[in-house]
Design goal:
175 residues, mainly alpha, two-stranded antiparallel sheet
Amino acid sequence: MHRTRGKVLGVAVALAATGLLAACGDNDSTASSTPKLTHTTTAPQPPATSSSAGGDTGTQVPAPESTPAETVAPERPQPVPTDVVPPGDTTKLTDKDKKFLDALKEQGVTAASPDIALSIGTYVCQGVAAGASEQDLTTFVNAMAGSDPSFDPAKMPVEKVGKIYIDTAKQTYCQ
């Protein structure tokens, strides 16, 4: 149970960050090209010779050795955890989770996946327990709800969806 809450909390934080970042930009990029990584090396210097006023002693100072260019291993994606509940899979949900999701659905709110709705509900409960202000809760919940791929502003304003999440979580999920 504690692992599930940790994962849900992680998803909630990720959604909050995504929502806040998405709300800050207007998708206007000023980049005109992709930067290219270039690596330059210096050519080996010819051996330096030492001479004195009395003539050439024939002593040679070796040139500094050039080091081969470092090779960097390509970045590899992390493996997908196998114990994550896939979207739409309700077999691992608790009765409390199902009650919360059903209450949201009754009010016209259906998240793209149960994880999204449960993350928002968990965030609300943690915020209430921590004494967060209603304004703070509303701001972050609206951002998370608005970043849900299934959110459609033509059906319902994000402020109403956020209020439904907050009220429903307080009534069914934070107990």
